[in-house]
Every structure is written in structure tokens, then in C-alpha cells.
């Protein structure tokens, strides 16, 4: 492993990776979450490390363990992830693989809610868009900002629109419809949307997708 020798194409580069879901509390014992396992973000962080990068790995509560040999920052909520990302910058590249909750519960309770007829009424507030915030930084923007787009239909259309809306350089898009087995699985089939166009990659193990993406990132930063 080149990274272990302080060598490799990303030696001396600082790369931020977000990964995993976020948990948005409802009360001290309940939360809203999503099905992200953190597998692809974790594999990508490991692959970047193996190419010699110094990796800051900001992760929500994932179901796979974090890689070794990275700077680990554990967070729970989207707001905590935003703060951790801001604190971790500057970086040469920032890769946003996390499945950030779009909304948090605005009226989260400080003590456990008791069962009541009709159930509680939750109010929602929009979370900060971390990828868009970093993509649009006027000072100190990473040279390469990469977003992910997990979609269930019109994957490439949504990804291209998302890339424009967020202002990031690349989008890694995939189809996470239940039939694909990608969410929570070991394989991934991605479409890489860059300034040069769209590449449809074959279905590969998430580790192999990670290695190929890491090499692309290294080429881009070279
Ligand atoms: N993202 C983020 N902060 C958020 C929401 C999303 O950084 N609050 C990042 C994700 O990590 C991902 C990219 O933005 O890299 C796209 O996330 P996605 O949920 O697909 O985008 P949204 O704009 O939230 O669109 P959608 O309505 O499809 O959820
Ligand atoms: Ca979203």
C-alpha cells in the first residue's frame, strides 16, 4: 500500500470525505434516519488513503466500521456534519458521499415522548446543504468537489440537474431502487457526471468502484 509508505499519487494531499446517514432526533430515544450503510464512502476513504492522501473522514452513524489510517470525525446530525466539514477545511478535494437528512425535527422533545392518541405532530426544518455550501465557497473552495446522487428514476437526468444546482464539479450517481440491491449491498453501478460528460460504469464491487474513483481523483489533482 503506497499510502503506508508516505508515497503514492495523493501524497501530501488532504481529502475530506463525508459518509453514512445522519440521525435527526425526535426525542432522546428516537430519530429519523435513512438506509445508507456508509459502505461506498468508507471504501472510497480507504482507497484515497491507499493512494497516499491524508483523509479526513466525517461520518454519521454508519453500519460498516470506518477505515483505519484516516482522521475520524464522528457526527450524528446534519448540523453536526456541516460544522465538522467547515472545521476540516481547507482541503484539496472534498467528496460528499453521506446521505444527509434533508430535514430535521424542529420540535424535537428534550424528554421521551409518551404514547398519546393520534401520535405526535412533528414539525420539520430544512438542514443546511453541505455540498452546496462548500461548492459555492468564494474563498478556500477545494479544487475538486464531488457529490453523490442516489436516485430511483431518471438517474442521469436528476444527476445532471443536481450537479448544476449544487455547483459541484462531479456527481457520482446511482440507481438505488429496491430491485438493484445497491443500497446496503456490496456492489454499485455508477454514472460519473463530470465537466466532460457522462460515463456509465459497469456494475462492480464497491471496493473496485472506490479504487477507480480514487484514481480519477488523483489524476484530476495531479
Ligand atoms: N448533501 C449534503 N447536504 C445535504 C443534502 C445533501 O451535503 N443537506 C449532499 C450529499 O452528500 C450528496 C449530494 O448532496 O453528495 C446530493 O444529495 P441528494 O440528497 O441526492 O440531493 P438533494 O439536493 O437533497 O436532492 P433530493 O431532493 O434528491 O434529496
Ligand atoms: Ca436529499
TrEMBL record:
Pathway: Cofactor biosynthesis; coenzyme A biosynthesis; CoA from (R)-pantothenate: step 2/5; Cofactor biosynthesis; coenzyme A biosynthesis; CoA from (R)-pantothenate: step 3/5. GO terms for biological process: coenzyme A biosynthetic process; pantothenate catabolic process. Binds 1 FMN per subunit. Residues 10-219 form the DNA/pantothenate metabolism flavoprotein C-terminal domain. One of its GO terms (cellular component) is phosphopantothenoylcysteine decarboxylase complex. Its cofactor is FMN; Mg(2+). Residues 15-222 are annotated as: Phosphopantothenate--cysteine ligase. CTP binds at residues 102, 112, 128-131, 148, 162, 166. Its EC number is 4.1.1.36, 6.3.2.5. It catalyses: N-[(R)-4-phosphopantothenoyl]-L-cysteine + H(+) = (R)-4'-phosphopantetheine + CO2; (R)-4'-phosphopantothenate + L-cysteine + CTP = N-[(R)-4-phosphopantothenoyl]-L-cysteine + CMP + diphosphate + H(+). GO terms for molecular function: FMN binding; metal ion binding; phosphopantothenate--cysteine ligase activity; phosphopantothenoylcysteine decarboxylase activity. Keywords: Decarboxylase, Flavoprotein, FMN, Ligase, Lyase, Magnesium, Metal-binding, Multifunctional enzyme. Catalyzes two sequential steps in the biosynthesis of coenzyme A. In the first step cysteine is conjugated to 4'-phosphopantothenate to form 4-phosphopantothenoylcysteine. In the second step the latter compound is decarboxylated to form 4'-phosphopantotheine. Catalyzes two steps in the biosynthesis of coenzyme A. In the first step cysteine is conjugated to 4'-phosphopantothenate to form 4-phosphopantothenoylcysteine, in the latter compound is decarboxylated to form 4'-phosphopantotheine. In the C-terminal section; belongs to the PPC synthetase family. In the N-terminal section; belongs to the HFCD (homo-oligomeric flavin containing Cys decarboxylase) superfamily. This is Coenzyme A biosynthesis bifunctional protein CoaBC. It comes from Cereibacter azotoformans. The gene is coaBC.
